[in-house]
Design brief:
347 residues; 2% strand; two-stranded antiparallel ribbon; 4 strands; mainly alpha; 13 helices; 77% helix
Amino acid sequence: MVEQLKKLRQHLLTGVSYAIPFIACGGIMIALAIAFVPMTSTGPDFSHSPNLKLILKIGETSFSLMLPVLAGYIAYAIANKPGLVPGFIGGFLSGQINAGFLGALLAGLIAGHLVELIKTVPVSRYIRPIMPILIIPVVSSTIVGILMLKVLGPPIADLMTFLAHWLQTMHAGNAVLLAVITGAMIAFDMGGPVNKAAFFFGAAMIKEGNYAVMGACAAAICTPPLGLGLATLIDRAGWSDEEHEAGIAAMGMGMIGITEGAIPFAAADPLRVIPCIMLGSIVAAVVATLGKVGDHAPHGGPIVLPVVDNRIMYVIAIVAGAFATAAAITIVKRLSRSHAEQTMEAA
């Protein structure tokens, strides 16, 4: 069992190592574009900045390739080159059905293990040469595509509808409880369907003149990448060189409200990272709610400070959430290392 978990972690790390440059490139270019464009009550305004809009488009393209690359190279780690095609297709479709990085992880694992299974099927020696270049890609891509579009897609759509209705009912209740729920949802899948449900709910409340929900969301949105980036600076020994580089990029993305900057860390170690970033986003959202923060733009991070009510509390909420995330993941990783060392000594 332990050996299987180690293999799973290695497969995930392989996908992450290939995806990090796409996330960093896309995130930095988007950050540059948004940082220098005017911020209005409806968000960044690129109507009079064609050059910045071009940079934004290139950055978004790099970002959009992140899910296919992540899934493709997870599949590659499991099944070598034959896993690339179904992995890339599964990752791309994960973006199309708004399944986010969790969908891409699942697609990559399914694609890799499916290809490995197909490899074990006995075939004629005349067919064997075309298996890796024709038969395996077509069969595995068809199966992965059907699973993503027909099996995973409809439940995700239903989940989005359910979450939207649920948040509408919560809106009439306790504001702090709503902040806890939206904060947790924002961090859970970092741009996936759960995140989007909370974000769009906050954006919808702006149209109704309620800026507090978006204020909580805006503080929660930037906390995961800022907190994880901060953690790589606090506990340098606990992170690899690659993770240090990802941490710097994540902090840049956090400053302009791109939650996806946390994905490399979550994809490599989801069971430990996701609860920690959820905690940080909850802290940020609750502090923002208690501080009566209001955000007039459907965006998050320090970049929207000009259109935020109670700016000092907004900054305090972000700092509190980032430190909560950094502290939580640092403690969890140190405890894990200590446990691993004790296990090795006992063995």
